[in-house]
Amino acid sequence: MNRRITFFAVVEAIILLFLLVALFRNGFIFFLGLSLLFSWLARRSRSRVLGVICAVFWLITVIQILKSGFFWLAIAFPVVLGFVVYRRKNSNMTSSATEHRSFYQNVNTKSTEEAQNENKNELIDLADIHFHESGNNLAIRKNSGNTKIIVPKDVEVALNITVRKGIVNVLGKMTEINDVQIRYFTDNYESAPKRVAVMIKVDNGNVDIIRDL
Predict the structure, then answer these.
(1) Can you tell me the distance from the alpha carbon of 79 to that of 6, in angstroms, rounded to the nearest whole number?
(2) Rounded distance between C-alpha atoms, residue 196 and residue 212, angstroms
């Protein structure tokens, strides 16, 4: 990000430098000086004639700067760059969301466990899961109730947690309160022989993900 900002600043500085040179050559500096001079004289004397002359010089000054292509380039460059960055950011967010959705939907029936409890506190130990090489999924959906999941040392997890009202604590590294959606992968998830994708959706309740000591 710092390199991109530096690159943008250098290019914009070069454009502005060329703009200044172009304005100096087309008489912009001369008309700007006259505009400032007659503005000062018009304020001092309160003369309408000088006021009109001042307005004419300011109009010429504006025309001179608008005639320069470098002026429009100095404006267009950051606008276009901002549009490209915005599109790329949205594209990355869409791609990331698609990958996550595909990841959670690409599940074998035999490796999926789902709990649908309307109102219940739960304590789940992932050590009790029968692990499959293709991966394992655990989905929990409920209206209310606290959920605590114990993750053994040799198990890696991918978490997709949505809570409208409650506290979410993820392995002591991340704590969020109320109306949050958290996606979290442990470091060695992709290469781990034992891994579980956990999706939790709770309207009202706390979610606590802890490591087994």
Answers:
(1) 16
(2) 15
Please state at what angle helix 28-45 crosses helix 2-25, rounded to 10 degrees. Answer: 80
- 136 - beta bridge partners? 196
Whole-number Cα distances in Å, 82 to 74, 86, 131: 13, 6, 47
Distance CA 29, CA 111 (A): 75
Cα–Cα dist 151/193, whole Å? 14
- Going by their DSSP bridges, the two strands 112-116 and 136-144 should be labelled as parallel
Residue 106 in this model has a pLDDT that exceeds 50:
no
Provide the pLDDT for residue 103.
42
pLDDT in tens, 27-46: 777 888 888 888 888 888 88
Average pLDDT over residues 174-197: 88
- Is residue 168 left, alpha or beta, with left meaning phi > 0 and alpha meaning psi from -120 to 50? beta
Give the integer Cα–Cα distance in Å for 64 and 25.
Answer: 10
Helices (H) and strands (E) in the chain, counts: 4, 10
What backbone phi and psi angles, to 5 degrees, belong to 194?
-115, 110
Show the tokens assigned to 111: 């490796």
Residue 119 three-state SS: strand
Question: From CA 165, how far away is CA 2, in angstroms rounded?
Answer: 37
